[in-house]
Design brief:
- This protein has a seven-stranded mixed beta sheet, sandwiched between helices. Strands 3-8-7-6-5-4 form a six-stranded antiparallel beta sheet.
- The model has no long low-confidence stretch (mean pLDDT 90).
- The protein has 290 residues and is α/β, with parallel strands linked by helices.
- It folds into two domains: 166 residues, Rossmann fold, CATH 3.40.50; 116 residues, 3-Layer(aba) Sandwich (Calcium-transporting ATPase, cytoplasmic domain N), CATH 3.40.1110.10.
- The chain has 13 helices and 13 strands.
- The termini are close together.
- Bound molecules: adenosine-5'-diphosphate and magnesium ion (MG).
- The site of adenosine-5'-diphosphate has 22 residues, from helix 3, helix 5, strand 5, strand 6 and strand 7.
- It comes from Granulicella arctica.
- It is found in: Cell membrane.
- GO terms for molecular function: ATP binding; ATP hydrolysis activity; copper ion binding; oxidoreductase activity; P-type divalent copper transporter activity.
Length: 290
């Protein structure tokens, strides 16, 4: 490719909020036939809100939310901001946290008032030998597309929280455009099977759920080994390995510094339709060169 055509192409992208890191990315993008998309923050708005607090006996909503929000206050995950926002709205004072640890794609751990607190998915609580007793509330909340978080204090399960994250308004239209362009789309998510299935069926796309960040990268690799040219779009809280593995990593503009550095393409406004625009830009640039 000539440097001039590439400069024109990347310049045109920039005016539309599409940042293309280098010539190689622009050249490769027209060949993309498979697009893997993260759920949270990519297909959904990534601005979840707390819908449900179910404390166990001995706790009330306020005491449960205080403990959980205190811990989540140190996390940068979108789920965490939903929880701290809810605590703020209810004017709940937060407690001090020691030894904060983030377990990527699973949840958070810390010490509050001398007791270990764990908030996250089932796998995280199980890894601390905590038994979750939540009846069948969990599955019905997940069936509504909500993400359920479990909380424990010491060795004891103290309640669950559910968070809803609406699908982006632009997502349906973007998916239609991908189909029209002959790109297959698969949702990949760290969220659980039932929640993922509820969202995927609203969008009518295939999905793989319960994935660690590393597993997402392995799925990219699997499609690549079948000969696909793969783009991966993610908000990047923990999609960095998959973004790096893909032929073209697409960082959504709402994402973190990590993803912005990893992405070959950055969509500043987080609108998936920018992917179709970027691909057209790539096609036009390459045909100008040929
Ligand atoms: P996605 O692939 O949808 O972006 P993530 O990989 O970021 O999801 O997270 C996977 C799961 O890990 C979440 O659905 C949640 O159950 C749990 N999790 C991750 N971060 C946190 C956190 N800060 N607090 C509680 N749970 C978390
Ligand atoms: Mg994510």
């Amino acid at each position: 490719a000539t440097p001039m055509a590439i400069m024109v192409g990347t310049g045109r992208g920039a005016t539309q909020g599409i940042l293309i890191r280098n010539a190689e990315t622009l050249e490769l993008f027209e060949k993309v036939d498979t697009l893997l998309v993260d759920k949270t923050g990519t297909l959904t708005e990534g601005k979840p809100s707390l819908t449900t607090l179910l404390p166990v006996e001995g706790f009330n909503e306020t005491t449960l939310l205080r403990i959980v929000a205190s811990l989540e206050n140190a996390s940068e995950h979108p789920l965490a901001s939903a929880i701290t926002k809810a605590a703020h709205e209810r004017q709940i004072d937060l407690l001090a946290v020691l030894d904060f640890q983030s377990h990527t794609g699973r949840g958070v751990v810390g010490t509050i008032e001398g007791q270990r607190v764990v908030v996250g998915n089932e796998a995280l609580l199980h890894s601390f030998d905590i038994v979750i007793s939540s009846g069948d509330q969990t599955e019905s909340l997940r069936g509504e597309g909500k993400t359920v978080l479990f909380a424990a204090q010491g060795d004891r399960f103290i309640g669950l929280l559910a968070v809803a994250d609406p699908i982006k308004e632009s997502a349906q239209e973007a998916l239609r455009q991908f189909r029209d362009s002959g790109i297959r789309v698969i949702m990949v998510t760290g969220d659980n099977q039932t929640t993922a299935s509820a969202i995927a069926s609203l969008l009518d796309i295939p999905f793989e759920a319960g994935l660690s960040p590393q597993k997402k990268a392995e799925i990219v690799e699997r499609y690549q080994s079948q000969g696909a040219i793969v783009a991966m779009a993610g908000d990047g809280i923990n999609d960095a390995p998959a973004l790096a593995q893909a032929h073209v990593g697409i960082a959504m503009g709402t994402g973190t510094g990590v993803a912005l550095e990893t992405g070959g393409i950055v969509l500043l406004c987080g609108d998936l339709r920018g992917i179709v625009k970027a691909r057209r830009l790539s096609q036009r640039t390459m045909s100008n060169i040929r």
